[in-house]
Design brief:
The complex is a heterodimer of chains A (658) and B (1087).
Chain A (H helix, E strand, L loop, with lengths): L26 H14 L4 H27 L14 H12 L1 H12 L5 H26 L25 H34 L3 H11 L6 H34 L11 H27 L8 H32 L2 H12 L3 H13 L7 H5 L1 H27 L15 H24 L5 H11 L28 E8 L2 H14 L4 E4 L7 H5 L6 H27 L12 H27 L23 E6 L7 H10 L4 E6 L1
Antiparallel strand pairs in A: 1-3, 1-4, 2-3
Helix pairs in contact in A: 1-16, 2-15, 3-5, 3-9, 3-14, 4-5, 4-8, 4-9, 5-6, 5-15, 6-7, 6-8, 6-20, 8-9, 8-20, 9-10, 9-14, 10-11, 11-12, 11-14, 12-14, 19-20
Chain B lengths: L1 H6 L4 H7 L14 H20 L27 E9 L2 E10 L2 E7 L24 H5 L9 H10 L8 E3 L2 E3 L1 H18 L4 E5 L5 H13 L4 E4 L7 H10 L3 E5 L6 E5 L10 H11 L11 E6 L4 H4 L3 E4 L5 H12 L20 H14 L4 E5 L5 H13 L7 E5 L8 H9 L5 E5 L3 H4 L6 H5 L4 E6 L11 E4 L8 E4 L5 E4 L12 H9 L6 H16 L14 H5 L2 H13 L18 H13 L13 E5 L13 H5 L7 E2 L4 E3 L1 H7 L5 E3 L2 E11 L2 E9 L7 E5 L29 E3 L2 E13 L9 H11 L26 H4 L4 E6 L8 H9 L7 H4 L9 E7 L6 E7 L8 H5 L5 E3 L5 E3 L9 H5 L6 E2 L20 E2 L2 E2 H7 L8 H10 L12 E2 L5 H15 L15 H5 L5 E5 L6 H6 L4 E2 L11 E4 L15
Parallel strand pairs in B: 6-7, 6-14, 9-10, 9-12, 10-11, 14-15, 15-16, 19-25, 21-24, 28-39
Antiparallel strand pairs in B: 1-2, 2-3, 4-5, 4-16, 8-13, 17-18, 19-26, 20-27, 21-25, 22-23, 23-24, 23-27, 28-37, 29-30, 31-32, 33-36, 34-35, 38-39
Helix pairs in contact in B: 5-26, 6-17, 7-17, 7-18, 8-13, 11-12, 11-13, 11-21, 13-21
Classes of the chains: A mainly alpha (658), B alpha/beta (1087).
Amino acid sequence: METAVPIQLAPPPPELARVPLVADRGGVGWLSDTIAAITEGKTPKWWWIAFTISLLALCLGVAMVLYLVTTGVGVWGVNHPVMWGWAIVNFVWWIGIGHAGTLISAILFLLRQQWRTAVNRAAEAMTIFAVICAAVFPVIHVGRVWFAWWLLPIPTANGLWPQFHSPLMWDVFAIGTYFTVSVLFWYMGLLPDLAVMRERARNKARKFCYGLFALGWTGSHRHWHHYQKAYLVLAGLCTPLVLSVHSIVSLDFAAAQLPGWHSTIFPPYFVAGAIFSGLAMVLTLVVPLRKLCRLEDVITTRHVEVMCKVTLAMSALVGYANLMELFTAWYSGNPYESRALRQQAFGPYWWAYWTMMACTVAAPQAFWFKRARANPAAVFGVALLINVGMWLERFVIVVGSLSRDFLPANWSYYAPTWVDVCTFVGSFGLFFTLFLLFLRFLPLVAIAEVKSVAAHVSRFSPHSQEDSAPAEDGKPDAAGGVETGAYGLLAEFETPAAALRAAEAIRDQGLRRWDVFTPYPVRGLGRAMGLRNSGVGWFALVGGALGFLAGMAMVWFMNQRDYPIPIGGKPLFSPFSALPTAFETMVLLAAFGALLGMLWLNRLPRLHHPLLKHRRFALATRDRFFLVIARDDPKCDEGAARKLLAALGSCRVELVED
Amino acid sequence: MKRDSALRIPHSAVHASVAPQSALRPPDSLDDPVSRREFLKLMSASFLLAGVGLSGCRRPEEKVVPFSAQPGDYVHGLPQYYATAMPVRGSAMPLLVKVVEGRPVKIEGNPEHPINQIPLTPSLSPGGGEGLSPNERKGARTHGATDLFAQASLLGLYDPDRAQRCTHKGQTVSRERALDFLAQTAKAGAATGGRGVCFLMGRSSSPSRARLERLIREKLPLARWHEYEPVDFDIHRQAATLAYGKPVRPFFRLEQAQRIVSLDGDFLGSEEDAYRLVWSYARGRRVETPADQMSRLYVVESLLTITGTNADHRLRARPSQLPALLARLAQEVLPPLGWNNWVPEPPAALPAGWQQWVAGCAQDLLAHRGRGLVMAGHRQPLAAHLLACALNHALGNVGKTVVFLPAQAPEAEPLDTLAAALRAKEVETLVILGGNPVYDAPADLDWPALQRQARTVIRLGAYEDESFAAADWHLPLAHYLESWGDARTADGTVVPIQPLIEPLFGGLTELEVLARVAGLPAAKPYDLVRETFAELVNVAGAEVRTLGPSGGASANQTAANPAFEEAWNKFLHDGFLAGSAAQAVEVELAPGAARHFREALRELSSQAPAPPAGSGQVDVVFVRDYRVDDGRYANNGWLQELPDPITKITWDNVILLSPQTAQELGLPQQSAEGNRVLAPVVRVELAGRAVEGPAWVQPGLADGVVGLALGYGRPKAGRVGQGSSYNAYLLRACTSPHHAVGVKLTLTGRTYPLACTQTHWATGSDSQRAAGEEAGAPGRVAPAAQPLYPNPLDVPDAQGLTPKQKALHWWGMAIDLNACVGCSTCVIACQSENNVPIVGKDQVSRRREMHWLRLDRQYVGPEADPQVVHQPLMCQHCEAAPCENVCPVNATVHEPEGLNLMVYNRCIGSRFCSNNCPYKARRFNFFDYHRRARDQLYRSPLASFNEGEWEVKRWFKSRDRGSLPQAEWDLLQLANNPDVTVRMRGVMEKCTYCLQRLQQAKIAQKVKAGPSAAAAVPDGAVLTACQQACPAGAIVFGNLKDPDSQISRLKAQGRAFVLLESLGTKPRTTYLARRRNPNPAMPPSPC
């Protein structure tokens, strides 16, 4: 390992002084060390304790599900008017939490919020695990779990298809797509980091596993080029997706007749609430994690503060929606609606309503104060309150509305049973078990992305004027002449600026078969290498178009053509009610298009790359920049190239075996 | 028993319309190879079915004659209908019973019976009946009225807790030994002329029993006869007999009455033959146009009864206030009629405000002489009944709204003389037939100890209940559905009781035991009934004159007589003996009547005026329960789970209090634990005896009254009936069986959980009022806007016809809230027809009851004295059904005839449909209610060990098998209707408009119409179970496409409205708004 070089920057003028997003304690290589250390060192005691508790909770949950499935839904507290209870509350709550990851990864990416890089990996993992927890609930809550697969659009013995007027079918597609795309997005973000882990792996099994999933990632800038495009496309797809998922979940309620559910405000209200609760959950996780994992310098106070501010904004939105609901109920003059809202606030569940208001609207107001934002304990406390409040919000909507509907003769009270409670605890067990495993085996922070942000404040910026001198040991390799078995010529650079300049020079030489390998995508390098715009977008476009048409055609075929049956007086096929499904299939196939297109264009996965054998090339995923000219390039003249590369500031130029 | 299956006569009139002979051509003879093959094919197919769906088809082959020659009427797989009757106290209810594969599965009223044919009442309609629909003009008849006890008696047949063995001192003995003992008793009795032999029976209308009694009296002249009913209706006969000087009983013709005054008489609920009175009352309330007249009902009562909820004017009075009120009414009515020679008693003192009520009521009666009716309930003393007689007589109502039928004066003595004999140790052998005196005898007799004073007690009992332990010999009583017998209905018509199944537990009938104890030569009930019938037809002379002078002497002689056989067969087929109804007798006041009346009036008016409410004096009223009667149906799960029509409480009785009384008592607010109401437990003390039970604040009760329902708190009733809240019999004394004064109430500080299906009733909040108005007032909400898109059923096909146009029927239902009295018979009928499970008290208290049809009770007006609307509510079969849109798996869909179908096989149980149903008409199987014991619902099959086997293992062996004990499982299988799927856990279910009946009617119609013709089912040819059972005729089902159908006419009425119309669901079920007929000269409610 190289020793870190202390960085000295001219202090910015005081009015521009900002807390840097990532404290620079020794170059981007330090980031690799810090982040990878969480998975590499001895398993800390707190992890074992937390993992044991989580696993026990998970076992409890599994036992509860077994009990439920063998005995009947009646073991829960659901009853005649309140047919949906904690299971659906938990579902909506978990799904809401699952929104923050994609929000931070995708929306903030599009908005160029660079602070996202420190937390997006954890948030995405949280998203995936939360969606898993969420998806468990609607499946186990159905009366006949063993037939839940009838929700899939596949032929069954019944000879009929699912019914696409139902928001539950939209849910199946929305959550299915969201989960799949979230996993794709997360995995794609992991690719470079898996390569980092592969290079750092000390034992064979780890190396093999990481290597397998890294798909042969080398950090080639030609790869980075498509990768960035795919990432952008996926972010662009995820943004409407994340908005659609909770909109559709809200339609489970808004598309129903029930007073208190049947409301047009629900889609934006639910999305805001979801992002709100998701951010709160990220804060709940990140605040202790940065302490436990010693990541204070990577996930800094500034990150926490920014998230607090966004949370505050979301709280305002949610509060506004809450009040707006009351206003609309009053203003509409609909007696059932106004009664429903009055019952929510002053009926048997008044305690839930006012606790929800206190937790989601009042408590986050603390974030107006920097003192609160900067105090981890305060942030953690408020975030917990928000989580509780958002759970209660779903409770008020689901249970409060169902227990008081049109005809008072139907009214009843809902109370959960111990099975409800234990199942909910079990879902935490599932979540934390998965999250703790993730913590131990995968990088908690997106290393490559943080590196690219860190580079802004360091001398590693491609635009930094400071040029590093060739290293002392950077002597040209002794071996003269290109041997037959050689793959090409490898030049190592210490700074992205040097690599950038070298790339420009090589491009000007008119060479074709060469590449630059960087630990993170260096801005401007693509132009410097003369790469054309990536074609990944076309793959996504074709995928999306196919997906949309397939979705529409599927709904039409299943509900109009193959099994036409009147449903609730609605048209057999309506593009409007098919739209949610078609939208989700569109996003799904577009996301697959982007990812597979990226892999196709990059000729990935590949099992082996000659450069990976090279002793120094491992640094390409750490903090060094390599320019490689393949031997079979027609214009490659080895001697001239060596000279040129040395002149361009390469600290060492070597031949690589094939 | 071989004889039985061959001799029962199916009721072809009904099944001809449902199951025509040509549907499946029955083989003419087994010699014909083609038809024989066909027959075998059918048989094997149905055996296959039997193996899959309905295991245990109870036709024991060794006992019943197999169809070696198939009976002419029998088509395998199609149900048969037999006419029979359910005996109840001094009356009976004519029934048709649907029998499938040799087991009764559904009970319906017999529409052919004369009691269900009420003549038109032109006097009610100004145009001489022009306001009546063509259907009604054609013939005014019910579909066969029943009550909920009759409907639920089917489950009683299959009750596994019924007595199944003969016992001696609690030990099982063989049936032969028990019968031997009866023969010994007979021998011993014959030797002494019956000295020391006492019979204790319930009331009965059976001619055979009366005949046997006569025979035994001749044989055993010294034997003593006693009759006891804890709830007895004989008072009507006693008063009439006293007034008119000959044995008569009143027969009320409410359809003729325009003004009805009921004095504590719950004739729509707990009086005898209420099913008939409901029907005749509803006839008088039927209106088609706003101009139509309807009768007016005045009710004075202490508690809120079904009759009270239907009253136009209702006065709440404590029982101790009623005599003065009645006396005052007489004093108002009689002088203007010239009956003033004995009226000038000092006017009865009335509480402030009541005078106006009584005067208004009296004026109304006087203005409708000959068209009014005054009734007193069975709880009222003889004096009140006499005064009611006097009023009716004076008003000229006799012969019009009330007629008098000859009645046999019972020769039996009451219970207290038996008690005296027992106390004096004069009883050698006590024969108890039916009845459960240890439980329901007056508390001051201390019956359990008293019964031990007899040397030998022989009891014939349906259950091994409270009286079982105090009997030396116990014989199982056969259910009426497995017995031969006869009875008389309210109008005196003789009806047969035919067995429809081999006695499940080898039970004996009352007739059989009576004959054996008496040592009569022929002890077979079949022979006994035939002999009685032979006498009857001979005496009646109306039917068979060829019997000759010696007819009726013995069954053997008559059996040879073809004319008798024909009459007998017709009797069994029709279910009644035509022309045997009692003829109304001309009555004149007996010479001593005036004296009786005067004494009655003096007795009533001279009673010390009751202290006003709030003075601390509390009266108690003992009432016959709407669900378990006097306790005899306590082990019937359908009845136990039926919400009480007034309180909506299931599985328990409560101590009823008015809100004000509760406040005076300092009764704490009811708390709740989830949906389980925790009612404060109150101690009720009366004359040194006390019971403790949950107090229930019931709007509409008179202040200063507690109501105690009989029939609960049974220490030994069976698995279903045991352990409910309290036993009101423990307070009941011989002297005051119906009400008593001077009750002391104390709070115990404890609470008792109650399962109530409608907990939100408090009037006053605007939401409640809105719901009440919604039920009562049409047109309050704006009509739904036109939808943006056409219904697929309205989209024309290539021929230009829409699916709706092509549909032969547009099914629809109308429920006349004006006719519906709230008796809840429809709920049980639906439960029986559609295999709706019982879920148990715990599940009901979690609001998981499964009734497809429920009665919503709406209060309108002040909490102390509200008006009540009963609203039957089931799936409304919306044309734009919100439930369908949200089902992800197409499990609930629509069909062109307008039915909202629920397909159990497809349902995965997401329950979204229920959430989106604004009527909440759907029910969810939270557990395997059909297959699991109610106390084991929460036990996972993974951890259940039953009958020596792990549940999981048993499940692997047979997936359809539940965890119930095998015997119980087999019986439950028998009770289920094979035409309706039994639902498993995890699926949603709801009212189907009795889809199975529609399909059967359509198939029958198709068969009738031939292959090419498509013909709609004629109006009235298909009845839903609730419609069929409704004694009021409030539910009408039919084809909306036929503009002349009754349903179309009803929907066109101005009273028609659909529930929650503003939601645009377009229900096919229409309600006809409740109308009241208040007296404009009177304040609506004095308090």
